[in-house]
Amino acid sequence: MILDLTTIKQMVNISFYNVQTPPTKDEVFKRVTDLLGMPGLCGIPDDLTSEAKTDVLETVAKEYMAKSGITMEIASVLETPYTPWLPNKRADIDPFYWKRYEEFLIKDFNNDVMSKFDQVTDKITGYLQDPDDQGEWERRGMVVGFVQSGKTSNYTGVINKAADAGYKLIVIVAGIPNNLRNQTQKRIDEGFIGIDTGKKYSLGAGDNKIGVGLINPDRTPGHFTTSVKDFTKQGADTAGIPLQNMKEPVILTVKKNSSILKNLVEWLKAYNANIGTKTIAEPMLLIDDEADNASINTKFGQNEISRINGQIRELLQLFDRRCYVGYTATPFANIFIDPNSDKEGFGYDLFPEHFIVSLEPPSNYVGPGKLFGGDLSDSVKAVDDNEDHIPLKHKKDLPVLGIPESLRHAIRHFVLSRAVRILRGDYSAHSSMLVNVSVYNAVQDQIRDVVHRELRNIRDSIQVNGSLAVDEGLKDTQINLLYETWLEEFSDSDYTWYDIYPLLNQAVSPISVVKINSTSTDSLNYDDHKENGLHVIAVGGYSLSRGLTLEGLTVSYFLRRSLMSDTLMQMGRWFGYRDGYDDLIRVWMPQESIDWYEHITESISELRYEFKQMEAAGAIPRDFGLRVRSHPDQLMITSRNKMGSAQQVTVAVGLSKRFIETHIVKRDMKSIELNRLAARRLVESIEQSGGPISQKDYQGKGYLRKQVDVSLIKDFLRGYQNHSASMITETGPVLKYIEDREKTELSKWDVLFVSLQHPNQGYVDTETLGIKINCPLRTEATSVNNRLLDLKLSNKQRVSDRGIESVGLTDRQISACEAEYEQLKSDRIGIDYLYRINRERPLLVVHLLNVVSPGPKESVKASVPETPVISWGISFPGTGLEEKVTQYYVNHTWLQEQYGDDLDEEEGPDDNS
Questions:
Q1: Which residues fall within 8 angstroms of residue 832, CB to CB, at 6 or more apart?
Q2: Mean pLDDT by 10 residues, the chain (913 residues)
Q3: What whole-number distance in Å separates Cα of residue 258 and Cα of residue 243?
Q4: d(CA 742, CA 736)
Q5: Cα separation, 537 vs 525, whole angstroms
Q6: Any bridge partners for residue 709, and if so which?
Q7: Which domain holds residue 893?
């Protein structure tokens, strides 16, 4: 028997599982040595030197020690009051399915993570209804995780425990693409069914036990779907599994496709007719994977229901006893659902009425917080050379004649990362590179071909000249480029070019380029490459943006433009677990996308923080639903399909605990001068009521005046010419919010006129406001639709420097916020958010900005203003009164102007109407 290194690592993990005292490095090293010395076992290739073999042993021991230190927090929960049933019933439950799944997981989990995983899945299972309860009942909930953080493992755990408790029919509604449904089915085969359901369709398949079936095959759930075949009426009839009086549970993994769901509903109705009932008595659990995708009712007309949403609800109504649990990493759309929506024949909409569970990932999860502004932010690289080859905005007939140098650099990095992983002993581990640059299949086809040619050129050079001496090999152009990439990307590596050079051929040879989209025959069948690993560069669009897991993803090249929070987060296939190679991962994307990921990461972190605060206060899902539905970011995640056929949608936004800013202004001089005049009048009004603003008012970040009357703030906002693209600062709604509270919480304000301590590039303004302002410098952002009319000050809707909202707080308040920030830093909570929720008065921030051009004058279509530009921001404190919202109006014209081609969908994805 020959073991690969991955198996050896798993054996080490299993051997120390449930050991009370964590082993030392020497004990782990001895255990690895003992395993490798067992007769007939060999985990290291014979052609490695003894020094390299020692490095491999060190790697295994080091990775185990790192894994043993991984921790995980328990999930947070909002629940509608409910009487627990699982603790009292546990003594009567035979945990057959759970115990074998637990044993299946321990090869990858340490004691702490496994314990927390057990607790979390217990908690979620407990929020389901007791399957033995009689009569008609329904439970609806949602589990919120992170992208690529292990949601499938979580709901597989819940499925196993639900089956043990007595749930008889389990339906998983998986993603829209076929390859995602198939991938989910394979995970269920391994973690619940215990057999390879696809093998029965192959001649000579032999023993098809896998995963939990290899641990204990005594019992096997029934299944109406396989890893190669979705649900069909004929297949269900052929299976002949009775739904009543089932000895073992039955599971279906179906694609989120209207035709498939229609067949399933019709088959169940026919089944009921045959047995003389309208509904099925057996308890049913429906898991809605990627619940924010296609499951939401996008019809806003009276009594209208979109097709898939209606079919899921109709499916639930066919059972007397039913539970619905939606799993998602981007819950915004689900929480926007009207919890009171009901329609005869369909039941209530899919709002998580009874519970919302917010999962916490293990500490080794590489998520948004680590990549965008965190420990691994250096791994994210800005792309600025794509427009000549692959413009962000392009049509389906774009000819692709070449690729940007940054993409060539990324391909070389992937080849080199393979060589490093070989040195570390991960020679048989899967490795992947993602290229997601277009929504159009025809463009993806061309990209695949060009990337293939680039990879072939690298491979050909290495095969011809890679065996030469190092100095001679460097004379080859491609090898020299690899060397330059090595110097740029791997300068901190423990290895040298002399270590890497002999392994280049082994690294590059197995890499292939595949296309993953709705028209492709290529696949990512990792199971067929367990012995040597699958090594691919995957080019695609829709399938690579939603749900599909790329094993061993190391390099990502991403040019898709989107400002919609849910869409952008789901595209982040590079999030996940990168144990043993997190230093090798790289993500290339435009600077605008980097800025937006940082913004969204903080926004989601704030919502999670508020979720925990609401949990402590005993809030219920409806309370959190109101908070999310009033979040300002809903203006940015309102997508075309969520507007339905409406020409205009009213959006209610709450400004409590929010910071809003003008990030884009009108370029014409008349508007610029009117805004300068509004700011000057504000200064004059403040001085009339409180004396001249002087150096004694300077507070480190600018001139601060406290206790300013709200009437002066309102006058300033009325005089300011807001740009329609800066919707959150639209004058009418902001004034309405202020006026609702101007006699109470918003009667007195702090006002800050920003001025740097030292002049930036020597730019000092003494005329505009009548006080000396050292103007902050801002470079005009280029991502606007009409640069002749628009002057965009920031790609991420933030103009102010970090920490600006501390102005006006006491030293004690600031110290307390900074201490809490250090505790929450890993959660990516912004320091300004903590300052904001501790404010007693709102803060108006007025900027006088020196805006400079993004490039040489001859390369830009419009010149920047020669005089400083006014923008403003408001930090609204929390409220002790009833939460009030203000009304904004979103229309198709604004949506198209803001997002443009972001609203396009890839050609030919499966029906998701």
A1: 659, 802, 803, 804, 805, 806, 875
A2: 60 72 72 64 56 66 70 88 94 96 88 90 96 95 86 95 96 83 92 89 64 94 91 79 79 92 91 81 92 58 64 92 89 59 60 90 84 86 93 90 96 97 86 92 93 97 95 96 96 92 96 84 77 90 68 91 65 82 93 83 83 90 79 60 58 87 91 96 95 92 96 97 89 93 94 91 88 91 63 80 94 94 79 93 96 65 80 92 79 62 46 35
A3: 23
A4: 10
A5: 13
A6: 748
A7: 638-653+885-902
CA-to-CA separations, 752 to 1, 330, 454, 879, in angstroms, rounded: 72, 36, 54, 22
Kindly report the CA angle at 798 between 796 and 802, in degrees rounded to 5? 120
Which DSSP string do the residues of 58-113 spell out, in sequence order?
Answer: HHHHHHHHHHHT---PPPEEEE------HHHHGGG---HHHHHHHHHHTTT--HHH
Does residue 146 lie in a domain region?
Answer: yes
Residues 90 and 56 placed together within one structural domain of the fold: no
Enumerate residues 6+ apart whose C-beta is below 8 A from 753. Answer: 683, 693, 702, 703, 769, 771, 773, 846, 848
DSSP string covering 281-322, please?
-S-EEEEEETTTSS-S----STT---HHHHHHHHHHHTBSEE
Cα–Cα nearest to 714, from 687, 744, 685: 685
Say if residue 801 is in the same domain as residue 865. yes
Give counts: helices (H), strands (E), the chain: 30, 30
What would the pLDDT profile of 808-819 be if each residue is shown by its tens digit?
999 999 999 999
My answer on whether 668 and 678 are in the same domain is: yes
From 68, 98, 115, give the residue that closes a domain. 68
Q: Are residues 707 and 824 in the same domain?
A: yes
Is the whole model's pTM more than 0.85, yes or no?
no
Same domain, 381 and 499: yes
* 409 and 541 both lie in a single domain: yes
Query: Which residue's entry shows tokens 């075949």?
Result: 229
| H helical segments located in 318-440 | 332-335, 368-371, 405-423
Q: Verify that 46 and 180 share a domain, yes or no.
A: no
Cβ atoms of 77 and 356 closer than 8 Å: yes
Which residues neighbour 377 within 8 Å (Cβ) at sequence distance 6 or greater?
Answer: 370, 371
Q: What angle is formed at CA 185 by the lines to CA 181 and CA 189, rounded to 5 degrees? A: 175
Q: How do strand 365-366 and strand 576-577 relate by DSSP bridges? A: antiparallel
| Residues 353, 425 within the same domain | no
| Nearest residue to 714 (alpha-carbon basis) of 742, 689, 688, 693 | 742
Number of structural domains (the chain) is 5
Separation of alpha carbons 287 and 308, rounded Å: 14
Provide the b/e sequence for 384-416 (b: ≥16 CB within 10 Å): eebeebbebebeeebebeebbebbbbbbbbbbb
Quote the tokens at residue 285. 């659990």
In a domain, residue 604? The reply is no
3-state secondary structure of 588: strand
Q: Tell me the CATH number at 118.
A: 3.40.50.300
| Distances from the Cα of 323 to the Cα of 119, 124, 137, 171, 602, angstroms | 20, 12, 8, 10, 33
Q: Domain end: 68, 96, 119, which one? A: 68
Residue 63 lies in a domain: yes
Pairing mode of beta strands 748-754, 843-852:
parallel
Torsion of CA 691, 693, 699, 701, to 10 degrees: 150
The DSSP secondary-structure symbol of 267 reads H
CA–CA distance, 81 with 85 (Å, rounded to integer): 13
Q: Is 817 domain-assigned?
A: yes
Dist. CA 401–CA 393, nearest whole Å: 16
Cα–Cα distance measured from residue 618 to residue 77, given in angstroms and rounded to the nearest whole number: 10
CB 749 within 8 Å of CB 710 = yes
Structure tokens that stand for 577 in this block: 């677990």
CA distance 399 to 390: 9
Q: ∠ CA(525), CA(527), CA(532), 5° rounding?
A: 100
Q: How many residues does the chain have?
A: 913
